[in-house]
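Quick entry between incubations.
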Amino acid sequence: EAQVTQNPRYLITVTGKKLTVTCSQNMNHEYMSWYRQDPGLGLRQIYYSMNVEVTDKGDVPEGYKVSRKEKRNFPLILESPSPNQTSLYFCASSRGLLLYGYTFGSGTRLTVV
Amino acid sequence: AQSVTQLDSQVPVFEEAPVELRCNYSSSVSVYLFWYVQYPNQGLQLLLKYLSGSTLVKGINGFEAEFNKSQTSFHLRKPSVHISDTAEYFCAVLNNAGNMLTFGGGTRLMVKP
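Done. Structure below.
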C-alpha cells in the first residue's frame, strides 16, 4: 500500500531532550515536507526537500533540523525541544504538487513539558 | 507571497442541508488552489484542485468549488451533507515555483443529525 509512515504517533518529552520523528514513504516521491498544525493557524511548513541532499526552509524552521540522505526518508530533528514546539506534526510527500498534491502521514502528536 | 484566509473557523449544519465553506486568497501571479479534508485522527486528503480552465471544479464525495478571480475566492460547496462529512477542511494555495503549499487556518464542519 502506498503510504507515508511517521513514528511515533504520540510522544511526550521534556524540555531540552533531543528527539527525532521519522518519516518514510514507499512511493519513490522526490518531494517531501514537514508541517506543524496548531489550532486556528492551520498547517505551517517547517522544511521541505525537493530531492536527496536538497532541503530548504519553510515558514517556521526555527528550532528544527531535517536531513534527506535517502529518497524515502525525511526525519525531523528537534535538538533542544521547548514547550512552544508542542504541536501536531505531519510529514507529506508528492511526485508533483501541482498535479498530484500531497500524500500525508497520520501525524505525530508531540508534547514538550 | 501568497496567503489564504478561511473566514469561518466552525460551521454547524444539519444533515441533508447545503453548506458553503469560504476561502479567500491573495496571490500576485498565477493561482493554483486546493481544498483538503482532514477526518478525525487522520492526515489530510486532497478533495479537489483548481489549476486552470473551468471555474467550477468537482471533487470527491460530492463536493465542488468555484474559482472567482474578481473576488479572489475559492469557496467549497456541497448541496446535501452527510454525518460522515464531519471533518476539518483546509484551503491552500501553491506558489508559482510549485514548491510551497500555503494552508488556511481550517474550517471545522460539524454535521448534526
